[in-house]
Structures are given as C-alpha cells and as structure tokens.
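re: ur question from earlier - yeah i can do the single chain one, its not a big deal. heres the input i used so u can compare w yours
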Amino acid sequence: MVKLTTSTGINFESNLNETQVISIIKNLDNKFAKSLVRQYHQSRGLSYSQMVWAHKLAMDANKQVAEPTPAPAINVNLSQLVSILHTAKDHLKYPKIRLQLNKYTTLVLSLGHDDTVYIQDANRKVNTKYGVRKKYYGMVKIDGTFEPSKAGIPEGLVELLQDMSNDPARTAANYGHLTGHCCFCALPLSDPRSTSVGYGPICAAHFGLYYPN
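and the output i got, formated as tokens:
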C-alpha cells in the first residue's frame, strides 16, 4: 500500500502495481482513462503525475465493484474444470486460467499443491493474517464441488465457472476475443489463427483443447 497525492492535492492510497492499474483503467468508459492508456502504450510509460491519476482512477473503479454478498448453498459440478487444470499439470508447474467476470473483475483459477482449484481476483487485494493477498472467492475441490468464500462471492461467478467446466474451449475463446490475450498463459494473441480461435496452439495442447490444423 502506497500513499499518493494527485496534482490537485487529492490524497489516497493504492495497493496496485503499474500493470494492474493499466489493466483496470483500459476497461473504463472514461476519456481521461483512455488517453492515459494510449499514452502509456505509445510512450512506453507515463509521467509520475499521470501514473498517480491512473492509480486514482483504478482505485475508484475498484470501489465501485459491488461487495460480495454471503453465498447460499451451491449445488454445482465443476469436475471438467478440475480435469483440464490437471491435464495442464503434466506440462506446467503452476497451471492457471483467467476468466473475465465483469467489466472490473478478472478471475484467476490456480491449481494448488493439494489439487484444489483456488478462485481469486486478479486485480483486487486484501490484507490477511498472511499479508496482502489476492481477494479469495472460493475453491473447487477435486471431486468438482464448489466451496465459496465465507465472505461471499460476486454475482455470476458460479455461472462463469460452470461455463468453463461445461465448454472450456468456448469459454476460453470468449476471454481471448474479449481481451486479446490467452486465458491460459496471459500472452497477447498475435498470430491470426490464434486470434481467431481465442487461444494459442501450445496452450490448447497443454490443456487438452481442440485447435484447428
């Protein structure tokens, strides 16, 4: 957490890094935010004053995300989601999947050492007894059952996880088409065929998904 002051004297705190800030404000329907993102990419960075304002916009956006509400009992089977992460474990030490829940929230699905899939927020962090950690929304156990965080889960999270479990290729493609990045490795989709499919051939092989020849 760092303390920042804008050029107009507004004091605030930010727990985001530069990459997280740009990732958040690029999705804002705000001309100033769009100009900062454009300047960031064109000039390979922002001035200190510009970056402070970028932090301010990102933190304000995070505050606008509705706080999770306590989750009711959930009857869902996400065994296929667990299966594709286990398939990738044969190739990757720490397989992950990224999914776009809404305008401000990107989920990160990580396979733990205990073979449980942990669901976290890529951009939001909270203070825990173990230090600052990504906001935690729950876990998918090896049998495919979902255990939500006691603090609650955002609207639409379970449905998105179910989509990834039922049709991983389509859901992964949706993320790629929306963000321009592969949901598995997070790299930009630059090859025309990968841009069309929504993910790359190497990740397709690692996660056991179809990729056209």
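The first helix runs from residue 18 to 25. not sure if urs matches, ping me
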